[in-house]
Write a structure and sequence with these properties.
The complex is a heterodimer of chains A (81) and B (142). Chain A contains two helices and five strands, in the order βαβαβββ. With 81 residues, chain A is α+β, with helices and mostly antiparallel strands. Chain B has 142 residues and is of the alpha+beta class. In chain B, the strands form two sheets. In chain B, strands 3, 4, 6, 8 and 9 form a five-stranded antiparallel beta sheet that branches. Chain B starts with a strand and ends in a 10-residue tail after the last strand. The chains are: A alpha+beta (81), B alpha+beta (142).
Chain lengths: 81, 142
């Protein structure tokens, strides 16, 4: 089933995508599947196992179910401090 | 309270915000922008945050510190933006009746913040190159 998602990008992913956010239509079911689709399309260098996902402002499991209208953020390895 | 700030940190004012007459100890940590890392000369650091989740996760870390240690007050702030050498990137402050809990809680908070809060750091080197830290594909998996 197709769904429309808002995706936000930060740090290395924002630079590699060339955008901070976009709406996109996808049939992918989980954050990992969506990330793999985007990684192929935009040549992201980070593998899926090094990127966490947040859905609607909360950390989410990589196999969470994506729903129409969700806001998805992919979180590269953090480096605060 | 955990905050993301695009404005320069003021450690003196932040510490004053923790003032509490029940506290006999106040331990603070300030992280500064250093001029080298992994053998490379740093020119400046750029910080970016996913602010809503960073503040939520940072708040959880402060709650954990309050639950684990006999803490009276705890607060932390992380900068975003382009920082020059010597600027303050992160500040943590903890008060407690006695020093042991304040030291332990402060250490816990800064360690967890660095490991969990969605903040990213881009190093700008003296030779003009840049790199997002922890994001190189050749790095070992954390």
């Amino acid at each position: 089933m197709t769904k429309t998602l808002a995706v936000q990008y930060f740090a290395i992913l924002r630079e590699q995508r060339g955008l901070s956010s976009e709406n996109l239509v996808t049939v992918t079911a989980t954050p990992t599947a969506l990330y793999e689709e985007l990684r192929t399309r935009h040549a992201f260098t980070l593998p899926a196992n090094r990127v966490r996902a947040a859905i609607n402002g909360e950390f989410a499991p990589s196999d969470a179910e994506l729903r129409d209208g969700d806001t998805v953020v992919f979180i590269p390895p953090v480096a605060g401090g | 309270m955990f905050r993301i700030s695009a404005e320069p940190l003021d450690p003196v004012a932040l510490e004053a915000g923790l003032k509490d007459l029940r506290a006999g100890a106040c331990v603070t940590f300030t992280g500064w922008v250093r001029d080298s890392n992994d053998g490379r000369n740093i020119f400046s650091l750029e910080y970016e945050a996913f602010a809503p989740l960073a503040e939520k996760e940072g708040g959880s870390i402060l709650d954990e510190a309050r639950a684990k240690f006999a803490v009276i007050g705890a607060a932390a702030v992380h900068r975003t933006g382009h920082l020059q050498l010597g600027e303050s990137a992160v500040w943590v402050g903890v008060t407690a009746a006695h020093r042991a809990a304040a030291f332990e809680a402060c250490r816990y908070i800064i360690d967890e913040v660095k490991a969990r809060v969605p903040v990213w750091k881009k190093e700008h080197y003296a030779d003009g190159e840049t790199a997002w830290i922890n994001c190189a594909t050749q790095s070992p998996v954390a």
